[in-house]
Structure to design on (457 residues):
């Protein structure tokens, strides 16, 4: 028997007060919906239909080929949203799990457990519930005198007594697929909110079907993210869980509450992470590297024994033993060779460096290929942009670039070149040459007295 998933993500997320639709809002730099879809993909679900509506293109771009899209053009509630999957799922045999796009802490293990429980209980509908000390905002689970679920009442429709109920609807349901599409059209509009509530399926199915509940103990896993404060709460849970996993795996994290590591980051044992550090995207940190303090790394690979401190590294690679920082900025496919030293206000963009190259202070290296043993003096700049186009600089091995040098690209500096400090180099420099490209100094002897006249009394 097949298992289907419906994920509801068509809503705007008005309570977020942001331009982005809620389910696309990033947590640890990854859109919320991706967390749910990744876990759905890892679980025992065969086919997933994602319901989108508000700014649907964002989801289509993000998840093309991974899900089937259903469209809810007008956001008329969760019941209406589920119904929009009819043309994909109606008539199919099996069970369907319905998930909300705003529960980023859900895990594949939990999803599979819920599915097993549903089948073992022979239910037609399993409602997943949990208990919150502060249940405000969630639909409450109303049980009858036998303890069986009778209905779900939304916060705003609750009477005083119902508001005291701590057991809430998580928004996850498993339902026999045939029954689901019999029941969905029977949902009527909630007169107060003018929406079709999916929660109504409980009362609609109750007379003729077997309904059970699955009570989740880890309530944080099913928290619904409705506003920016909830984003920060979800992020905190994620951070703690991820950091703990890395620490148990042999990564030393100093002051972990200030360290943020994304889900798709790989860190080898014997790495040290110093405070105020963020590592996100598909980053890989190899053993014996020391990252931080005050460092951001995104989508980058850091090899063995590298140190990166007080620096930003985006979409770049740093090879073994290099020292990055303080205050370096590597971006847009900077590939730093082994044993380099890049720091103190140095930016490297779309460039590669060979082994043992140094740019230790105040330099810009952009659109450049650099060989090994090159020294960029303080203040050297590869002048890559003429206002219209970016141009390439090619530098050979064993080159010494004096302080305050401009290399006007396109330009080629061959091996063993020495460039005098203060040069503005516009022509290629051949192998072994000394290039001096600056005005000659004139010393006017005994001249200062003509400039500074003694004051008369
Ligand atoms: C919903 C449940 C509530 C439950 C809570 C759990 C209903 C009526 N209420 O409330 O019982 O306790 O989740 O977190 O179901 N969506 C659409 N189309 C719509 C409306 C919503 O696709 O027309 C999507 C949203 O994008 C969101 C999800 O459904 O991902 C839930 O919607 P939301 O407005 O957050 O529901 P809650 O008020 O939190
Ligand atoms: Ca919600």
């Amino acid at each position: 028997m097949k298992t289907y998933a419906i994920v509801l993500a068509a809503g705007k997320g008005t309570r977020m007060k942001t331009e982005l639709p809620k389910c696309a809002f990033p947590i640890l730099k990854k859109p919320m919906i991706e967390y749910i879809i990744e876990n759905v993909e890892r679980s025992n679900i065969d086919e997933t239909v994602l319901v989108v509506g508000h700014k649907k293109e964002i989801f289509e771009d993000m998840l093309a080929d991974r899900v089937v899209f259903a469209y809810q053009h007008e956001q008329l509630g969760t019941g209406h949203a589920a119904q929009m999957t009819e043309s994909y799922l109606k008539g199919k045999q099996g069970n369907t799990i319905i998930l909300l796009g705003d529960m980023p802490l859900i895990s594949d293990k939990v999803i599979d457990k819920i599915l097993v429980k549903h089948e073992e209980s022979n239910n037609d509908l399993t409602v997943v519930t949990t208990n919150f000390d502060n249940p405000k905002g969630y639909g409450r689970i109303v049980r009858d005198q036998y303890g069986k679920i009778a209905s779900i009442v939304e916060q705003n429709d609750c009477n005083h007594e119902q508001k005291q109920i701590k057991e809430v609807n998580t928004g996850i349901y498993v339902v026999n697929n045939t029954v689901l599409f019999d029941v969905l059209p029977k949902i009527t509009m909630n007169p107060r909110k003018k929406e079709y509530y999916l929660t109504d399926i409980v009362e609609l199915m109750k007379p003729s079907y077997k309904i059970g509940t699955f009570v989740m103990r880890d309530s944080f896993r099913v928290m619904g993210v409705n506003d920016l404060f909830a984003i920060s709460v979800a992020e905190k849970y994620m951070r703690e869980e991820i950091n703990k996993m890395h620490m148990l795996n042999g990564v030393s994290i100093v002051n972990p509450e200030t360290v943020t590591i994304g889900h798709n980051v790989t860190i080898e044992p014997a790495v040290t992470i110093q405070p105020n550090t963020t590592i996100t995207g598909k980053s890989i940190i190899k053993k014996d590297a020391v990252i931080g303090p005050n460092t951001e790394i995104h989508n980058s690979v850091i090899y063995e024994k590298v140190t990166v401190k007080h620096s930003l590294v985006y979409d770049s690679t740093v090879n073994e033993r290099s020292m990055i920082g303080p205050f370096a900025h590597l971006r847009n496919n900077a590939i730093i060779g082994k044993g380099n030293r890049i720091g103190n206000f140095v930016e490297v963009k779309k460039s590669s460096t060979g082994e043992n190259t140094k740019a230790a202070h105040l330099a810009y290296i952009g659109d450049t290929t650099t060989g090994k043993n090159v020294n960029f003096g303080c203040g050297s700049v590869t002048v890559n942009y003429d206002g219209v186009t970016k141009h390439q600089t090619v530098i050979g091995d064993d080159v010494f670039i004096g302080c305050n040098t401009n290399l006007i690209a396109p330009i080629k500096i061959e091996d063993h070149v020495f460039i005098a400090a203060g040069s503005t180099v516009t022509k290629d420099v051949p192998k072994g040459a000394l290039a001096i490209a600056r005005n000659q100094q004139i010393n006017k002897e005994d001249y200062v007295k003509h400039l500074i006249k003694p004051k008369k009394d």
